[in-house]
Each structure stands twice: as structure tokens, then as C-alpha cells.
Design goal:
2 copies of one chain form a homodimer. Chain A is of the alpha/beta class. Helices cover 47% and strands 12% of the residues of chain A. In chain A, strand 1, helix 1 and strand 2 form a beta-alpha-beta unit. Chain A binds a DNA duplex (30 and 30 nucleotides) through helix 7 and helix 9.
DNA sequence: GCAGCCATTGGACTTTGGTACAAATCCAGG
DNA sequence: CCTGGATTTGTACCAAAGTCCAATGGCTGC
């Protein structure tokens, strides 16, 4: 049997859809030790380390976060959760989590996993510090200028005005930049040159 | 259909049991592009980065290692694999990997995951002190979720798929977010939530 | 000189992002 | 019961972003 421990006002529809027979419980209510899996929903801003010790949970439980983050997930697993996922994850995903956990696995969402693995990779390579501005080496002078402005949030029109060139030219530079840096649009360019890891 | 790309002498019994209809292939042989999942077995001492580029693999493939390690797994995902697991994993586990990958997930074994998460924890502790997220206080739960995804570079379509809602809804949330945070587009939103100062 | 890169621009086009206006459900609190 | 916020979706429309093909002129190095 599945349990959803949730002190918010409304039960997420996707969970109900994933587990039509699942039971909704307040944090103060009892959960059978025989529960197959217990889903614990965090309140906004709450962290697993604050909540979990206050509850009497069965062996298998999973944290549900409305706004999951790397910090929440790591902490969830640290306090014994078998996984952490978005409260609003699709029903298929929820059922998938169930299957993985039932087989003794740990569940971590794809984006987080990539995030974490990317961090690990940097540790393994220890390259992070050596090449802070590698992208500049791949671009021509003008392209660097355009990339910096776009990276700060400027529109094509603004870049054009500031550099006194046609908007069309800005687009041409951007197309070249995207190709050279292997990014698909200005937002990912911004993340790249501002050193935001994802 | 499942394929096992394996140049060793014997086909692992567990794989045969997990996918009775699966096809065993040498590395030189052709794999249908319509393959559901392609399992690639590493030879002893071999690394994914050496092998994968030499093969013509479909979109979804998983690395099988007789002796999996953190290095092998990270490298496997780096070169595009959807997961990495022990060649001799139980049939149930193999089928589980299949399900996860079929749903767009990445699969990483439990022990590796714990290992990697432990490393990540240290980085997070440093990051946590620096930036209190004021913007989160202005948004509803769902809006926070959308803002985070967009801030990481996701397109409207990707956000919609990930949250299992219509693209139109993503736009509605974004319009509300822009208004509340007083930014004009997704790029400036990204700068705001990633704490980039200009 | 000529090949090659850089910077520039145009026209035509497709895709994506964002807004306006509207409306549905659910649920909380008065 | 009714109001108001949160979440969801629709149609339609406009603007911005991005691509493709093509061209010009400047500069450098062989």
C-alpha cells in the first residue's frame, strides 16, 4: 500500500492518478509498518533534515518536493530516503520510482543526476579552476563582444544599437557563436559564459 | 527490440533471462535504428570513451561493465549512454533499467549514486551560505518550479514535457513570473535566479 | 595574388517566446 | 456561499530569435 504524508491543503492529482488506492495521511497520523512505500511531501522551504526525524516512517520512503533542488535531494538521501522527486511529476514517473525503490534502488531525477554527475566529473578532472574563460578562445573579437552583451541579458536590438551595427549582423554573429560553443540559444549561451553549472 | 552488443565468448545468462527475445550481436554487426534499447558490453579494462565512438549506436544505449566503477559510469554518461550497470545484474534489475530509460531517465546503480552524492554534498555546503533566494518568496510553488527549469536553460516545450502540462500553461506561469519579479524575459529571469550581477 | 578568416548586411523564412482575452477547476478562508 | 488565489488550457496575434543562402570588403599569411 502507498501512503502520501502531506500536510498541505490539496492532494496532488498526479499522485492520486498514479496510485488510485493510495492513502492520504497527515503527518500526525499513523502509517502501517507494512507500507510498500511512503511518500513524504515537503512544505515550501522545508528541508528533509528538519522533517524526517520528527516522523515515524517505515523503511522505504521517498521525498516529494514542490521545488526540488540539489540540496534537498542530497539531504533527503542522507536522512534515509530512497529517493526524491518533484511533487508534480507525471504519474508514469511516480510509478517508475515505485518500481525502482521496490527493487532496492535509489531514485534521483534525470536533471539532478546529470547535475551531480557533472559535479563529480569536475572533481575527477580538477579542471574547473584552470580554464575559467575557455569560451573566449573559441571566438573572434567581435563575437566575444556580442556574446558578453547577450550574456548580460541584452536583446539583439540593444546589442545592435550599442555596437552601431545592423540587428541582422548581431544575428549572424550569434549563429556563429552558437555553432562554435555548441549551444542552441542565447539562454544557454548566457549560462555558459556566466559559468552557471547545470 | 533489445540488442546486446558483446564481443565476448558467452552471452550472460541473466540478460537472456531478462530479454528472451533480445538479439546478440557482434560489434561489427548492424543494429536496427528502431531498437528499443541497445546494451553495450565493455571488454575487461576497456573504457566507454574508447569504445562508443567506434560504434554506430541508436539513441538509447546502456553500458554493461563486468567491473563497474565510478570512472566508467561517469564516462559512459558523458558519451551519451542512458545508464551503466553491472553485466551480471539480476534480470529484474535489467528490466528495471529498461523501464527507466524508456521513460527518458538515466540509470545509475545504488552504490555509485551514494558515492557520487557524498562528493556533491561538500560542494553544496559551500554554496548554501552565499545566496538566500529572495525571489522564491514572491512566487507560488508551481511558479518556482517553472522558474528553476527555465533558469537552467529549458525551453517552454521542455518544461511542459517535464512537468506534464501544456506549453500554453508554461507561458502563463512565465508571464506571471515576469510580472512578479519585474523582469522582461526568460534570459533576465535566468540572470536573476542564478544570482548573476551586472 | 590568392586562400581563408573576419565583419558586415540583405531577403526570406521558420520557430520560439510572449501577450491579450477568456475561461475552467480546485480549494481556502471569511 | 462566495471571493480570491493557484493552476490549468484555449485561440489568436505580434514580436523576437534564429536559420539558410548569398554577397561585399578588409585583412593576413603563404
Amino acid at each position: 500500500m502507498h501512503y502520501l504524508i502531506d500536510d498541505t491543503a490539496r492532494m496532488p492529482a498526479n499522485w492520486r492518478e498514479a496510485f488510485p488506492e493510495g492513502l492520504w495521511r497527515r503527518r500526525t497520523e499513523h502509517v502501517a509498518a507494512s507500507a510498500r512505500l511512503c511518500w513524504v511531501r515537503l512544505l515550501p522551504g522545508e528541508l528533509p533534515a528538519q522533517l524526517v526525524p520528527t516522523l515515524n516512517l517505515p523503511a522505504n520512503f521517498v521525498i516529494l518536493a514542490d521545488a526540488p533542488s540539489e540540496a534537498i535531494t542530497v539531504q533527503a538521501l542522507e536522512v534515509g530516503a530512497a529517493g526524491c522527486c518533484n511533487t508534480y511529476a507525471a504519474p508514469d514517473v511516480l510509478r517508475q520510482v515505485d518500481v525502482v525503490v521496490a527493487n532496492g534502488g535509489l531514485w534521483v531525477g534525470r536533471s539532478l543526476l546529470q547535475h551531480v554527475l557533472a559535479s563529480t566529473q569536475r572533481i575527477l578532472e580538477k579542471k574547473a579552476e584552470s580554464a575559467p574563460q575557455d569560451w573566449q578562445l573559441l571566438l573572434s573579437g567581435r563575437e566575444i563582444t556580442v556574446a558578453q552583451l547577450v550574456g548580460q541579458g541584452a536583446s539583439n536590438k540593444e546589442v545592435a544599437r550599442q555596437l552601431d551595427i545592423a540587428e541582422r549582423t548581431v544575428k549572424a554573429h550569434l549563429t556563429a557563436i552558437f555553432e562554435k560553443l555548441q549551444v542552441r540559444d542565447r539562454l544557454q549561451l548566457s549560462l555558459r559564459i556566466n559559468g552557471v553549472r547545470d
